[in-house]
Design goal:
The protein is mainly beta. The protein has two helices and 22 strands. The protein is globular, with a radius of gyration of 19 Å.
Length: 305
């Protein structure tokens, strides 16, 4: 009995120390003398070096000091996030859940590519890239119900590829659930993205693939777009503000707030997740693709007025 108790305590100790180090990360170009760039200020950047099987973090949500992180392997993590004097000082795993269906069963492998995360009340909306859909989950990772989305998004044949599905999701009381495919659907203009609510759609100029959405204000969305090509060594991350409006003949107004280009010295990685921490402060995360040459990086930044 004592051996069994010791073994359980040992496993718990491993679980409660889910990363080995929280390292400083050089996100700003070394030549910069200021942390402000365009319309953002970089407050901090940290690399998370895990000593457990936590990989491919693709989405974030934040509430009451808890950072919720979604792996595209079909896992939901609860982290205790501590920020002191605008520096990330602690990211400690509290809970870990495998996503389950409404019956409490594990998802089929073809349905585990979870990519987008956003709070709706006390529950979490999760969008999926493969078998594209949006589901409502409780905080323990168990599905409650499927969310009805725009009719164009329900037909899987409309997507360019099976891994170009619903990468991002957001929610507000005014617009309801809003989501977007990573790249435009078949038959749509390549240079325009479309955001979809249940019944409406909003277009804007594309500057990469959509990987995350976050409301800034009632009618303003912060859009994270990724423009990467490993063959050409291109890696650009764009943060833009899109004002939702159906009155413009050329689509919604879009303003690029920051453009991070690896060729200009920025520490760009595969950024896919985004969440608001306070009124104008945000956190984004990179998906390491389970690749030893990529990193899990958190970048904490402020939007400048």
């Amino acid at each position: 009995m004592q051996i069994r108790i010791f073994f359980l305590l040992f496993l718990l100790s491993l679980f409660s120390n889910a990363y080995s180090e929280l390292l400083n990360y050089q996100f700003l170009p070394s030549k910069f003398n200021s942390s402000s760039f365009m319309k953002v200020k970089i407050l901090d950047a940290k690399e998370l070096v895990f000593d457990s099987n936590i990989r491919e973090l693709s989405a974030l949500a934040f509430k009451n000091t808890t950072l919720y992180a979604l792996s595209d392997r079909g896992y939901l993590y609860h982290f205790d996030l501590e920020i002191i004097k605008e520096k990330i000082t602690k990211v400690t795993l509290k809970k870990s859940f495998e996503l389950k269906n409404s019956k409490g069963n594990s998802l089929k492998k073809s349905k585990t590519d979870s990519e987008g995360l956003y709070f709706k009340g006390d529950d979490l909306l999760i969008s999926f890239e493969h078998k594209s859909r949006v589901m409502l989950y409780n905080l323990n990772g168990v599905a409650k119900n499927k969310v009805k989305i725009h009719k164009k998004l329900r037909n899987l044949k409309n997507y360019k590829k099976k891994n170009r599905g619903l990468e991002a999701v957001a929610y507000s009381s005014k617009y309801g659930v809003i989501t977007a495919p990573e790249v435009p659907l078949k038959g749509e203009k390549r240079e325009e993205h479309t955001l979809y609510t249940k019944k409406n759609s909003y277009t804007f100029r594309a500057d990469g693939s959509i990987t995350a959405l976050e409301f800034i204000a009632e009618d303003e969305l912060l859009i994270l777009e990724r423009d990467m090509s490993f063959l050409s060594l291109k890696a650009v991350i764009n943060l833009s503000k899109v004002t939702l409006s159906s009155n413009r003949s050329n689509g919604c107004k879009k303003e690029i707030l920051a453009r991070f280009d690896i060729r200009e010295g920025w520490g760009v990685d595969n950024f896919e997740g985004l969440t608001k921490l306070s009124e104008n402060k945000f956190l984004m995360v990179s998906d390491d693709n389970a690749n030893p040459f990529q990193k899990t990086v958190l970048v904490y930044f402020e939007l400048l007025k």
